[in-house]
């Protein structure tokens, strides 16, 4: 749960992750990464003066969120690097928050899937809960978006398929993520595999409602579903809406719903209509446009009903787009090959240099020999005629 630069782990950006009660912001859960990484993991502001959490030695801070701090750490027993998410002591003082953190982390730890970050351990140290996770190398989708602006449809279909496949595994166990966004989707550098990160807001469908505090809005407004934005009970289809918002952003370069602040964004999510993705991406594959528009339906019943269905649809689209990509690459290669002779002969050819055969070879030409022979024959005939006459 980190990246190529251990100090560069994506942290929540301003206005991203928040808690809202009765549609009012009660706390911004974000801090910039530069502020977080500039602090020593041993500093008193983290409440971890020993530099250790259980058997994990803290190396540096790689992210700070509303509920916890993520460290790059070393497992002293197994000698491996991990990403260690430690609940903030001031948040851990709330018994219900601590119970929810541990309960949902334990639920996420049950998922064993290649598209979900591996959770090694869930525990407590001096009354502070922590989660030890796999340490990843690569970048978040947010970082890729910042660098490229838009992502080509073939890659978007691939990313969407992998995320939907991971969500299907979570949903099968009754776990709802509730915070699918570019920051929580990781691209591994070597394999290109997508990993779903941060189940900090996840809940099981059978969770005790007292732990989720009905009436509280948790998540990221720009990507959350209308039912989540209005603090209603959500099911797995809420994650599908969030996935649709992410895919829309990857293709268009902006979110389907936005606003000047969190409150206006929530209003747009629940009430405003979005511009169909094919309108902002005119040459988009029609099937890809249809599945994204369906994912963004306001009412859950009008969306695809399972993540597995979404994954299968995106797999077919990905296969089609990949075939088109390969065919275009083949045609381009043939075109470039066909143009090579024209390129080579484009400069004017130099005029041929005349060669004197007799000079070049040192031998008399054939015509000269024939004429010489005829001349000798003619002289001989004349001489013979003269002698005969006398």
TrEMBL record:
Residues 56-315 form the Protein kinase domain. The keyword Transferase applies. Residues 334-352 have a biased composition (Low complexity). Its EC number is 2.7.11.1. Residues 20-43 have a biased composition (Polar residues). CDD domains: STKc_PknB_like. GO terms for molecular function: ATP binding; protein serine/threonine kinase activity. Keywords: ATP-binding, Kinase, Membrane, Nucleotide-binding, Serine/threonine-protein kinase, Transferase, Transmembrane, Transmembrane helix. InterPro entries: Kinase-like_dom_sf, Prot_kinase_dom, Protein_kinase_ATP_BS. ATP binds at residue 85. The chain crosses the membrane at residues 366-387. Residues 1-50, 329-352 are annotated as: Disordered. This is non-specific serine/threonine protein kinase. The lineage of its organism: Bacteria, Pseudomonadati, Planctomycetota, Planctomycetia, Pirellulales. The gene is prkC_40.
